[in-house]
Each structure stands twice: as C-alpha cells, then as structure tokens.
Fold this protein.
Amino acid sequence: MKLLITGGAGFIGSHVVRLFVNKYPNYQIFNLDKLTYAGNLANLSDIEDRENYTFLKGDIVDAAYLKEIFSQYNFDAVIHLAAESHVDRSITDPLAFVQTNVIGTVNLLNTARQHWAANLPGHLFYHISTDEVYGSLGEDGLFTEETAYDPRSPYSASKASSDHFVRAWYHTYGLPVKLSNCSNNYGPNHFPEKLIPLAIHNIKNNKPVPVYGKGENVRDWLYVLDHARAIDVIFHEGQLGETYNIGGVNEWKNLDLIELLCDQMDQKLGREQGTSRKLITFVKDRAGHDLRYAIDSSKLMNELGWKPSVTFEEGLSKTIDWYLQNSEWLENVTSGNYQAYYQQQYAAR
Ligand code: NAD
Ligand code: TYD
C-alpha cells in the first residue's frame, strides 16, 4: 500500500501520519504538505527517519506537481486533510480558502481519477471534512449524515463545496471515495490560533483569555487521537460512497470550557484556585458565529464499532501537560508571523 496523506504536517494530519506509520509498517506513507503557517515538521520529528515514511513538500493547488508525484510514486490511496482550517482567517481572507479547500481538492480528485483510470475500483480517495458544513444548531438536535448542508462561514462554505465535489466524482466518474465529518478536535500540536491552545498559551503567560460574545456558543470536542483512530477504522472498514459523522458526545459552552481549563491550569501551575479565571475577557463576537455544533456519531459507532477512548477531563489534562512540557514548540510557533496575526485579530476587539 502506497498511501498519500495530504496536510500531514498540520494538527490532525500529524497524528494520522504517526498512527499509520507506527501501526502499518508495510505501508509506504507519503506526507504531502505545503508547510503553511499551520504546517510544522517538528510535529513529526519522532517518525521522520522511519523507512516507511516520506515527506513531500508541495501545494495541492499546483496540478502539474500532483501529476508528477502520482506518476513518480504511484499511490494506491489518498487520505486528504490539507486545508486552510481557521474560521477567523477565512473571514479576513476567504480566497485562500477557495484556493486550497476547493481548487486544491478538485485538483487532487482530477489527478487521482486520471492516474487510476485503468483500475478505479482498486483505489480509494478518503476526504476529511468538518461538522461545520451542516451550519448551526439551536438548543436541541444533533447533526446526522442526512442533515442538509447549510454552511455559514467562508471556511465551512469551502469545506462544503469540497465535500460536494468528492461526491460528484463518486457519482459521475465512479471514483471510489469515503468521507467523514468531524466535530472540533483538541490535543497536542494544535496551532494556538484555535480556542483551546490559545487559552492555554495565554493562561500560562498571564495574558487575557479572549472569549467571543458571551461565551455561550457550544462545541462538541473530540481528542485528536480519537479522530485519528476513527480515520483508521473508516479508511479500512468504511463503505465506499458513504459518509461517517465523528463526534465526541461532549458538548461544552465556550465559557464553561474555559473555566474548566483555568481551574486545571491553576492546579498544574500551583496557582491559587480562581487565579486564572480572572484572565477571562469578553471580546467582540465573531461575525456569523455559529451557535452550536453537536454530532450524532451512532452510524460510525454501530456499524464500525468506534467510540471515543478518553473523557474530556482526561484529554484536556493530557493536552495541558503536553503544552507545558513542550514550551519550545509553543514558542517557535508563536514567534514571527503569529505576533502580527494576533495583533490584527485581537487588537480591535
Ligand atoms: P491545520 O490547519 O492544523 O493543518 C492543515 C495542514 O494543511 C497544514 O500542515 C498546512 O501546511 C497544510 N496545507 C494547507 N494548505 C495546503 C496546500 N495548498 N497544499 C498542501 N498542504 C497544505 O488543520 P487541521 O486542524 O489539522 O485540519 C485538518 C483537516 O481536518 C482539514 O481538512 C479540516 O477541515 C479538517 N477538520 C478539522 C477539525 C478541527 O477541529 N481542527 C475538525 C474537523 C475536520
Ligand atoms: P475555534 O477553536 O476557532 O474553532 P471553530 O470556530 O472551528 O469551532 O473556536 C471554538 C469556539 O471558541 C468558537 O465558538 C469560537 C470561540 N473562540 C473564542 O471565544 N475566542 C477565541 O479567541 C477563539 C479563537 C475562538
């Protein structure tokens, strides 16, 4: 098996690459990544010398490059994670999301189909997507695989578009595909522009922790390794043409989550309980901020036997420990361009 994983230097991709490299020594794993601000080869330093691992630096928007590497390495299957992934960035620069998430995905679909034309059924294109394509829930209800798409941010619109293209290639050209739509991930190697690592970073440094609006928005959090485990199960056992929702059965209001995080950090840093909560600062809400996401993953659980392996309290504790023990990683990614991003994103709020 020659397996191409795109976006493998990013947050989720690095955990997927590590899991496959370790678990399947007979597979050749190729990690294609452009190394944007979110891609970091330090995420994979422990496996970079493995014989079954190869890193390819490239851009999925570059169709000629994709053709070249498909011809050179003759991949059997693709797990596609490369994307622009941050909602706030999509509000300031939507075109970057159209480029990578839409055009990049169509380039990959086209290249895979052309390269595999002689034997389409022997191959697989597995597309990794988000629950955000389903839009925003009210107080009740869960997203199922049948929920109509209703994306509301440039990020979710670009991911919804890419999902539609993947299904179009399945129905029109018979490309063997699978899709999964996952809820919010958290864990080690998460870039500190997203809520949980940003809050850990700021609490550690005694800086204000920005909470959008009143902190009432709800997200369903899943530990990143449990997402990687789900991707493994779906890749190997999921049905062709099918979509699987992946979620943590773990809904938290942002403010409740940040308070729990503050309390765990106080304990770990030896601060008096209540100290870090004083850093919570309510700031201007995100434009078009989706109120609530919550996933029904019963199809994946019942058909393929997957379930989350850690509780939120355990996962959060492991995540904080990782950030406290890897301050060099955090300092490296928060120097340079990150400072400019932070100024622009939060100064005016
Ligand atoms: P990330 O931003 O941490 O990583 C994305 C990776 O893609 C980076 O390594 C980046 O360098 C690479 N990349 C970006 N543009 C590229 C291009 N044009 N060509 C090649 N590589 C490129 O993102 P993540 O959080 O790890 O998300 C990975 C995937 O999972 C995305 O498709 C995202 O939509 C999806 N997803 C994420 C979450 C979440 O909570 N983070 C939840 C559900 C689904
Ligand atoms: P985020 O981690 O950006 O993920 P997503 O928008 O894809 O769900 O944000 C999670 C939630 O936290 C979301 O409701 C927005 C909110 N949020 C804040 O309150 N403050 C912040 O500084 C950030 C980045 C997010």
About this structure: DSSP finds twelve helices and 13 strands in the chain.
